[in-house]
Amino acid sequence: MNWKHEWKNFGWMAAVFLTAYFLPVEKTRFIQAVHESLALAKWYAREHVLLCLVPAFFIAGVISVFISQAAVIKYFGARANKWKAYLMASASGTILAVCSCTILPLFSGIHKRGAGLGPAIAFLYSGPAINILAIILTTRILGTELGIARVVGAVIFSVAIGLIMHLIYRQEEKQKADMQLLIPEPVEIRPLWQTLFHFFILVSILVFANWGKSGESSGFLYNIWSAKWVITGFFGVLLGISLITILKIQWQWVAVSFVFVILEVLLIPNKPLIPFMTGLLATSILISLHEGEPHEWMAATWGFAKQILPVLAAGVLLAGLLLGSPESGQGLIPPKWISDLVGGNSVLSNFFASVTGAFMYFATLTEVPILQGLIANGMGKGPALALLLAGPALSLPNMLVIRSVIGTQKTIVFILLVVVMATTAGLIYGSVF
Questions:
Q1: What is the pLDDT of residues 182-219, one digit of tens each?
Q2: 431 and 381 in contact (C-beta within 8 Å)?
Q3: 128 and 98 in contact (C-beta within 8 Å)?
Q4: Backbone angles phi, psi at 248, to 5 degrees
Q5: Are 286 and 253 within 8 A, CB to CB?
Q6: CA gap 23, 17 in Å, rounded
Q7: CA separation (Å) from 142 to 255, 365, 371, 388, 428?
């Protein structure tokens, strides 16, 4: 008998038993926290799974199947040109309007295809942190100074954290680079522009389907928001064309799918999510039933979903239990404790803001109104920036998934780097302004 393994099993059983034994079900605060946990899970499922995560899984599947390992290694690999790799990785946030969880399948995709740890981490941080829509909203609502500080800090952070991670694990990266030299150049089955066109369509669907309201009743951003579903539908048509011309799926099947989607748009004009879901389901069926790359694409997409969704769901429930939902924040940790601890510009207040931001879940753009409320309750400028730099890029669900991709040690190092750098940036900003 393997006693070490059995002691581990006993430990888990004892932990579950003690948790159940001492569960404070009679406490109102605990009941409220459980309700908040379920409310956050419901909110996340409604607002982010279908519009954010599912398209992100399809994009990750494209990276995994259509973009050759040699291409990923060439631009993001351990021996890639560092300036180009980090520039491309840090610029990704201006293109992808995603949250800390939606970036995960994309990060997992490029990491599995051979991207170096540094560029992959830079991509992981910059995706949600340098969201151009969030930067604009921060500038308009919280002030130009904080908006500029956020974008400058996020760009520097993405490159610096990536480089530090690369240096810490340079021996491991060197071994990876040596192994990548042995990988033969694969024969491309289609021109690169076709793959990029297909990828661009999927990213556009992700971006415009999740385009948030800017808070104003006119202007360029408001007009895009008003027409977001028309624009998303246009890219849906382009996706159908791509399925036919690039992936060689029979046009009759694609046409039948379009008929169903158009009928739903005409019969249920005020429920755009229904035809969107139908389009996702139709795409899944079409690529599942066609052998070769389409089938491999669906298999890779499903693989990412199986890997990420269970851990993410557990993380969302735990985050809701501890911190509550975005609407009320009535978790086990009272929100007043947080607001009381982030006043002024001390090391403690900036550190606490960084840690709180790192563990809280912020959907795309929601960090701005949340921070607006905290500032109104006395939050200092330094802690505000610290939370903005740590919050969107990290969350408790995000951490659990990152651990499953790169391991416990690297995840802890990444979290510590984000928290320490956010704390330092908050201290400097709070001292100057």
A1: 555 555 567 778 888 998 999 899 888 888 776 667 77
A2: no
A3: yes
A4: 60, 35
A5: yes
A6: 10
A7: 47, 13, 8, 11, 18
Q: From CA 106, how far away is CA 345, in angstroms rounded? A: 36
Angle at 211 between CA 103 and CA 125, to 5 degrees: 25
Calpha distance 352→342 (Å, rounded)? 7
Domain ranges of the chain: 28-249+290-432
Residue in the block written with tokens 């969030």: 134
Contact (CB, 8 A) for 114 and 73: yes
Spatial separation of the C-alpha atoms in residues 163 and 387, rounded to whole Å? 22
Question: How does 63-73 read in b/e, with b if 16+ C-beta sit within 10 Å?
Answer: bbbbbbbbbbb
pTM: 0.68
**CB neighbour burial string for 122-141, b if at least 16 within 10 angstroms, e if fewer:** bbbbbbbbbbebbbbbbbeb
In the numeric block, which tokens belong to residue 317? 């429930």
Residue 129: which of 101, 155, 105, 102 has the closest Cα? 155
Instruction: Find the length of the chain.
Output: 433
Instruction: Quote the CA–CA distance of 397 and 395 in Å, as a whole number.
Output: 6
Closest CA to 154 of 100, 105, 102, 190: 100
Task: Kindly write down the DSSP assignment for every residue of 172-203, as one continuous string.
Answer: HHHHHHHHHTTSPPPPPSS-HHHHHHHHHHHH
pLDDT digits (tens, 9 = 90+) for 151-168: 888 888 988 998 999 899
